[in-house]
Amino acid sequence: MAVSVASHGHDAPHDDHGGHDDIIYNETRDMRLMGFVLFLVSDVVLFSSYIFAYIYLRNSIQPNWPPIVNGHQLPRLDTAFAAFNSVVLFGSGVTMHYALENWKHANKGRFNLFMFFTILLGLGFLGGQAYEYAHAQIGGWSGNIFGASFFTLTGMHGGHVAVGVGFLIALWIQAQRGVYTQSKFFGLTAGTLYWHFVDVIWVVLFFLFYLW
Amino acid sequence: MATVAPGVPTGPYHAVLDHIHPEPTSFIRKYIFSIDAKVIGIQYMITGAIFFVIAGMLAEIIRTQLLSPHGAIISAATYNSVYSMHGSAMVWFVVIPLLTGAFGNFVMPMQIGARDVAFPWLNLVAFWIFPVAGVILFSSFLIGAPDAGWTEYPPISLQGPPGTNLWCVAVFLIGISSTMTGINFLVTMYKMRAPGMTFTRMPLFVWAQFATTPLLFIATTALGAALAALFIERVFGVPFYDPKRGGSPVLWQHMFWFYSHPAVYIMIIPGFGIISEVLPTFARKPIFGYKMIAFSSVAISLLSFSVWAHHMFTSGMVPWLQLPFMIITMVIAIPTGVKIFSWMATLWGGSINWKTPALYAAGFLITFTYGGLTGFFLAAVPLDYHEHGTYFVVAHFHYVLYGGSIMSMFAGIYYWWPKMTGRMYNEKLGQLQFWVTFIAFNATFTPMHWLGLLGMPRRVATYDPQFQFWNQFATYSSYVMALATVLFFYILFDSFRNGKKAGPNPWGARTLEWMVSSPPPYYNFKKIPAVLAAPYDFGNPLPYLGLDAAPGATEATPTSVSHPVPTY
Amino acid sequence: MAQRVVKPKTNLGPGFWPVTAFIAVLSAVMVYLIESMPLPIGLIQAGAPADSIDALFRFLGAVAAVIFNIVVIYTVYFGIVFARPKGAPANTIGVQIHDAPVLEFWWTAIPTILVVILSIYSVKIWADLQNSQGDVLTIEAIGYQYGFQFRYPKLDKPIDEMHLQLNVPTTIHVTSRDVIHGFWIPELRMKADMVPGLINTIRVTPTVPGTYHIICSEFCGVAHSTMRHDVVIESQQNFAKWFARQGGSSGGGGGGTIPIAQGKVDLGQKLFGQKCSACHSVGPFDQKQVGPGLGKIFNDPAHPKLVNNDPVTPQNVAKIIQTGYQGDMGVMPSAQVNQLSNPDIANLVAYLASLSKK
Amino acid sequence: MDLATIEKVVAFIGALIVFSFALVGLKGEWPKSGLDDNVTKVLLGLMAFGCVLVVLACFGVLPHGGGA
Question: Which of C120, C180, C196, C273 would bridge with A71, disulfide CB 3.0–4.6 Å?
Answer without folding.
Answer: C273
